[in-house]
Design brief:
The structure is a single chain. The chain is of the alpha+beta class and 54 residues long. It is built from one helix and two strands. It has a single domain, classed as Rubrerythrin, domain 2 (Single Sheet). Helix content is 11%, strand content 26%. The termini are close together.
Length: 54
């Protein structure tokens, strides 16, 4: 829940190492190009991220 990365397997976020995970989210975005404007706006890299965490 720290970085909003979507974790499909396991109990630890591979992106930030957080164990505070939730299944309550609203919408998601997939970043394919870490150099894209969207990745820059979100300050993140390649991966799947929640838009809003409830």
């Amino acid at each position: 829940m720290e970085c909003k990365s979507i974790v499909a397997k396991g109990n630890v976020c591979p992106n930030c190492g957080s164990t505070k995970l939730t299944s309550k989210l609203e919408g998601y975005v997939v970043i394919l190009d870490p150099a894209s404007k969207l990745a820059e706006m979100l300050s993140t890299g390649e991966g799947e991220y929640a838009v809003a965490v409830m």
